[in-house]
Design a protein that fits this description.
Shape: elongated
Strand content: 5-15%
Mean pLDDT: 84
Bound molecules: adenosine-5'-diphosphate
Largest sheet: 7 strands, parallel
Strand order of the largest sheet: 3-4-2-5-6-1-7
Oligomer: single chain
Radius of gyration: 26 Å
Helix content: 25-40%
Distance between the termini: 44 Å
Number of strands: 17
Length: about 550
């Protein structure tokens, strides 16, 4: 990068000898140079770019000590093993450590270059860090997965928030905060809560061009949804092509999917927080060591997966927000080879997310999460490039509308000349010559109907009312609503698609069924058939319409 001296032969020699690399990646050198100057850094780097070198190199080069705060013991163990394999002394401290006395005495004599700790350790054992600093010195603190400090991110962890004490206790030690996913708001939060002093901020491109992203709608059942994403052998038996992770939203769903796949002869592991640590370790190892190609998991199967050749990540159920989604699909294709990321969802999946939303106490935080969720709902219904939408979430650039090859399902469909989203095309078929249609009147009618039934029925019933149906599901008092029959001239699929657009745009939301509400069909999938009810809070003032 301009303005920074090139690495010297000394630097390159250490890079080659200790890490086996012949050159720094451009942003790595910028960060390492700033660390060597004693500056604070805030780094947002796409997965696989090479974050670890940014703190490992300075420690080795200066024969100092890097203390690395990392969220997971398994992650630390992997890193320590990898460093030891390169003859770099490293250890981790934490409750899982068996030979504590020995490790501490080695640490205080300056044996280790890189020391991994959990954020909880800094809370409980800061005196050990003080002793380390007094006896050997600490040349830098690296805060890995730094987005965990922010509740505006997706993985908030209270002990991360308290890491601000490091700056107070060790004012002279530079801090390097690293993460793969952070919006501008999260970046600001990282810098302020860690007390970074005029940090060097580095943001690499978030794009992972080798990941193809697609969205599918759930069909009849688990097998009809998932088998099309598997290959068939010569006997017609299904199998995953390459290492595959299927993420499910709950433990129950994880078990259901894993057992169903096993039932049809597909070998897979399961991973969720309800399993014992031993069971989880076994599943993890069998997947990482290629003993099994498929793991069905909750997001608990996460940060510690350093497997380069994951070829497919499937979200079976709607993800809850862009940030965790991008982090999760980031586990695919770390080796740079083409990999596919699929979401398979039903609109009713958001009922689970809404249930969790209602548990959040702080109004501000709940609203933030709701906004993130609405954005995800919009993403799933997009007709334009999905990658552009995700990237714009992180960079605030407006997404480009030019479809690209090997990018996402919408780009592929647009390039092949087909309309991207059947649901919306039903709505857009009524666009005028200029490609515009004012949906205000129809939207208001739908919203008024939802209000008229006090948010207490499914979209299917709302449509029956709007279309003036006389069927039994339409209760007598619904027939007295002013909107009864007001939407006769439009088809059922038009109203369904419009309903979806209103949900995506945040004008209307599906809530779980209230007592006494219309609960028929609960648990069945498909738009309007999963027993969700509609509420229409705060929409009276929002009549901007769609154009
Ligand atoms: P991240 O934490 O950003 O996902 P890692 O630190 O795990 O990435 O590094 C990803 C891969 O890139 C590792 O296999 C690492 O050896 C490799 N790597 C890192 N820096 C370089 C470099 N300068 N030259 C070549 N390979 C590198």
């Amino acid at each position: 990068p301009p303005g920074i001296p090139a690495p010297t032969n000394d630097h390159l020699h250490v890079l080659q000898e200790s890490f086996g690399h012949s050159a720094f990646r451009p942003m790595q050198w910028k960060i390492i140079y700033a660390v060597l100057q004693g500056r604070d850094n805030c780094v947002v780097m796409a997965t696989g770019y090479g974050k670890s070198l940014c703190y490992q190199f300075p420690a080795v080069y200066t024969s100092g000590v890097a203390v690395v705060v990392s969220p997971l013991i398994s992650l630390m163990q992997d890193q320590v093993l990898a460093l030891k394999a390169s003859n770099i002394e490293a250890c981790y401290l934490g409750s899982a450590l068996k030979n504590k006395g020995e490790v501490y005495s080695d640490m205080f004599t300056g044996r280790y270059r890189v020391i991994y700790i959990t954020p909880e350790f800094t809370d409980a054992c800061s005196d050990i860090l003080v002793t380390l600093k007094n006896r050997v010195g600490i040349s830098l603190f690296a805060i890995d997965e730094a987005h965990c400090v922010s509740q505006w991110g997706h993985d908030f962890r209270a002990a991360y928030r308290r890491l601000g004490t490091l700056r107070k206790q060790f004012p002279k030690v530079p801090i390097l905060a690293l993460t793969a996913t952070a919006t501008q708001r999260v970046r600001k939060d990282i810098c302020s809560s860690l007390g970074l002093r005029s940090p060097e901020v580095t943001i690499t491109s978030f794009d992972r061009p080798n990941l193809y992203i697609e969205v599918r709608i759930k069909k009849k059942n688990i097998l009809s949804d998932l088998l099309p994403l598997m290959a068939k052998d010569s006997c017609g038996k299904y199998y995953p092509e390459g290492s595959t992770i299927i993420y499910c939203p709950t433990k129950k769903a994880t078990e259901e999917v894993a057992l169903t796949l096993r039932g049809s002869g597909i070998n897979c592991e399961m991973y969720h927080a309800g399993m014992t640590p031993d069971q989880r370790k076994k599943s993890h190892e069998r997947f990482v060591c290629d003993k099994v190609d498929l793991v069905v998991a909750t997001v608990a199967f996460g940060m510690g997966i350093n497997k380069p050749d994951v070829r497919r990540v499937i979200h079976y159920g709607a993800p809850s927000n862009h940030e965790s989604y991008y982090q999760e699909i980031g586990r695919a294709g770390r080796d740079g080879l083409p990999s596919v990321c699929s979401v398979i969802y039903a609109p009713g999946d958001f009922a689970v997310h809404r249930f969790f939303l209602h548990q959040i106490k702080s109004d501000e935080y709940r609203n933030h999460r709701r906004m993130m969720m609405n954005k995800m709902e919009t993403y799933l219904n997009l007709t334009t490039c999905r990658r552009a939408d995700i990237l714009s979430h992180f960079t605030s650039n407006s997404p480009s509308s030019t479809p690209k090859k090997d990018c996402c399902d919408n780009c592929t469909q647009l390039l092949s000349g087909r309309s991207a989203n059947k649901g919306v095309s039903r709505v857009t078929s009524c666009l005028d010559d200029e490609g515009k249609y004012d949906f205000t009147e129809d939207s208001l009618n739908l919203l008024k109907t939802a209000g008229g039934v006090h948010g207490n029925c499914s979209i299917g019933s709302l449509i029956l009312i709007l279309r003036g149906s006389n069927c039994q599901r339409v209760k007598p008092h619904w027939k007295r609503l002013s909107t009864f029959g007001a939407g006769k001239n439009r088809s059922e699929s038009y109203w369904k698609a419009l309903g979806k657009m209103l949900v995506s745009a945040g004008y209307i939301s599906e809530t779980s069924v209230r007592a006494g509400g219309e609960g028929r069909g609960r648990g069945r999938r498909g738009w309007g058939r999963y027993g969700s009810a509609f509420s229409y809070d705060a929409i009276e003032t929002t009549t901007k319409g769609f154009h």
